[in-house]
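Field reference: "sequence" (input) and "structure" (output). Example, HTH-like domain-containing protein:
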Amino acid sequence: MIRFRFVDDHRTEYSVKRMCAVLTIHRSSYNAWRSRRERRDHKALSDALLGVRITEVFRQENGCYGAKRITA
């Protein structure tokens, strides 16, 4: 993950092929990671919004609601 991000951040300065060779990752793996970016960002946003909603429900019920009640 970190190596893929490094390649992505520096792909305008160095060739992707060379960086992948130096970092011992496959170019196809990097390209697959890059193609899933939109889904990854959408999932992170969705998870963050869900976390906010869970916190709201928990606080509204003065910390008395557990996982079973919050998900119901």
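The chain has one domain: 3-69.
The chain has a mean pLDDT of 90.
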